[in-house]
Input
Amino acid sequence: MIGSLIYSRILKVFVLKIALWLLAVALTACSTDRVSTAPTKQQQSGEAMVVTANPLASKAGADVLAAGGSAVDAAIAIEAVLSLVEPQSSGLAGGGFLVHFDNDTNSLSVYDGRETAPQSAEADRFLLSDGSKMGYLDAKHSGLSTGVPGAISMLSLAHQDHGRLPWADLFGAAKQHASEGFQVSPRLHGMIQRFGKYLPKETKDGPTDAWEYFHTEDGEPLSIGHLLRNPEYAAALELIAADPRNFYTGKLAAEIVAEVNTAPRAGGMTLDDLAKFSAVKRNALCAPYRDMQLCGPPPPSSWLAVAMTMGILEKLDGFSSAGVEDPNNWALFGEAQRLAYSDRDRYVADAEQVMVPVGGLLHPDYLALRASQISTSKAESSVKHGDPWSFTNAIPEAAGVDATNDVAGTTHFVVVDQQGDVVSMTASVESIFGSARMVGGMFLNNQLTDFSFLPVDEQGAAIANAVASGKRPRSSMSPTILLDAEGEFKMATGSPGGNSIIAYTAKTLVGVMEWGLTPQQAVDLPNLVGRGDTVRIEKDRASTNLIEGLRDYGFEVKESAGENSGLSVVIKNEDGSLEGGVDPRREGTIEIVF
Output
């Protein structure tokens, strides 16, 4: 079913692999920096899998697993490569969320690497002198947009807990590709063609590094297959590999601060902002689904909207047995999304700075109430946020009408290692090529444009996702892990795509768990996004019958020419084997390791 999108590689003959593994255990038994080498459940098959949006990244992760690395080790190698070869989507000067499943203990952890606003940030950060909102591109291509990057700190924190190979050994593939060059892929070429014209070409508009990096001396976009070298990135990786704190102090940190504070629209970041940054290990946020547990990151991630969508559908229990073939099933999926999005847009923000009614939003009675607002025969003309506060013991906190832009520039990948540990990770620089400012061959993020540009709504009510000092902007990133009734790993999924991440991720869960599809079949389904008063459907993948069925249900349907998803999915079958799905809308591949 996956066909040519899977590059399956048998890295070791099974018997030889087991022999080598046993030898490695013997040689490292006395090492104090290794995790337990006791056999685990997944080692019965020895199968591991990597699914990423780029073949070079997938290979880098698989090579780390083949060398005895953990899922976290592979994630570090993968993100280091993606930062180079997919800079339109994510990077080490960005941030992300990593959900980890420990197969020995059936436990989940979340590593929060979301960027933070510098201490100088105030609520009017993206307002002009007359009180109006700054234009998006002006905000994006500025120092104002860059939050203190969280990716390195997050990966380092996860490695301290779950790494098997030395940190310094995980950057070899990225350093090699940076030094020797990598071929510009069709997707990267297309991004340069489409969006390169917006990059600053003159210093009056901002630093011109990105323009010069992506264009020939004649001003032409780099062609497909062009061998692109990035020695600055290789040098930065040397520093990071030696010590992850080198990113937050010393030469790299000084260069980041200088770039962020370059005119026009300097950002006010300081060396102290960088030095004090630390990623956070959090408990996973989990919600019951059927007899299973659906888990992901707590706010400022918007993952709870994925859980709400699935919880509303479960309470509704309205799907027909026709599954994917019934347009009405798709319509109900769209209505559940609309309800979840309306609550997410109103309430979700950095829970360390504002009150977020998480318990109310996921309360089974609240989900049942929201499900009761869905008709199985007719769409609601408009959908409003609910009152989750009444399902909590907290004093309600008013939240204004949100005014946040949410632009797609993200990646997602899944790793399952030979021990059965799992990483589901979403990473981002926010918009395409981030802030368009570069340090050490990396693109600085523009994640602070994920805040609401307005601090209050038209009625003067404070917007939950407004800018504040030290605050993490709300994120749509929603890496997901599903556990079965016994608490064992069942499925990992996630996607890039801005605010549509929630819809894309939920689609794979519905496809696999409700409609009985394989991971690849679920990924291949048309993307449907129900948010606000419009339902968007991917017209080139949707049948006429489906589109007309949505209209018959009463939706205002927008036929989308394409959706910017990049889904990566892995499930564990009943026999313990792994099965993956990779998004044909990007350049992803699946690697299998024995």
